[in-house]
Amino acid sequence: MRAAVTEGPGCIRLADRPEPGPPGPGQTLLRVETVGICGSDLHLYRADLGPSHDGLLPRVQGHEFSAVVATADPAGGPAAGERVAVWPVLPCGACRPCREGRVNVCSRLRLLGVHRDGALQEHLLVDTAALVVTTGLTAEQTSLVEPVSIAVHAVARGRVAPQESVVVLGAGPIGAACALAARDAGGDVLVVDPVASRRELLASLGFPAVAPDAPGLAAAVDAHAGPEGPHVVIDTTGAPAVLGTAMDLAGHGGRVVVVGMTAASAPTSPGPLPIKELDVLGVSCCTYAEFAAAVELVRRNTAAIDALVSHVVPLTGTTDALHLLEGRAAEAVKVLVDLRAPAPSPDREDPA
């Protein structure tokens, strides 16, 4: 079968790999349809997440995807032909967070497409317990379930309540998903992003959106949240300096939710933490229940989810997909790799 293998930093090649064996009890064999490319994929591709992610390459990436059941679990589960999304979290089940029910923050956490080969291959054998059937959703919409699940968890961490003011920093796919999830929870959402086309996209989805360097940013936040400031600020940027901005924007007693990943650092004054008594909350993946809830959130917002897909490329264009995400932020929002295209006839070892 065809697979796009990240062989080393900045190097992906299309390779021919053996087909998975038949599923045993508790396993399901999937035929992959579409795979979303996200910022964490780019970090692994560039190998820039530091020592915690050393030694992970070569790897077949891909953790946000749609698939159809090719061979069902002999012990029961989704039937052959059903479309599914896959919760990509692989917890150990034994550490303290797992024992406490917080499997998404397992101290020995492993992820499909990061620590175990993922979906940028034609067939994939997975645990049946990780599947959620997405009847009625398209392959493209199903591929967005995973990023939306991160937003569901972020909003839960931020305890967003009806009529609370929420500022989302960043209007990429995760930022847009956080805006949708916060609005779904009853929050009043303002989005901040430097890219005009992304602000326009969020505005088309019904969210006021402003630039972070606009002279009127403070006034826009005041107009949105009132003089006491927003209840919740969600930072999806992965830019280390933005944490200080988030803490400055949050109102007294507010919550700052950090979603974006980075190994970089920037000076940040801890002053606002005791002065405002802020809660600063990290986000790691999501629980299975939140992943299932994300399917329903996608179902309630299909038009908005469709609008987030900016590019679709074949498996042979996987490197192009990553470069789109890295270098053309004004154009690329959610880039999908479509494995349903027929296999090319040239050399299978051509670069992907």
TrEMBL record:
Its cofactor is Zn(2+). One of its GO terms (molecular function) is oxidoreductase activity. Residues 1-26 are annotated as: Disordered. It comes from Geodermatophilus ruber. The keyword Ribonucleoprotein does not apply. SUPFAM superfamilies: GroES-like, NAD(P)-binding Rossmann-fold domains. Residues 173-298 form the Alcohol dehydrogenase-like C-terminal domain. Keywords: Oxidoreductase. Residues 24-132 form the Alcohol dehydrogenase-like N-terminal domain. The keyword Oxidoreductase applies. This is Threonine dehydrogenase. Coiled coil: none annotated.
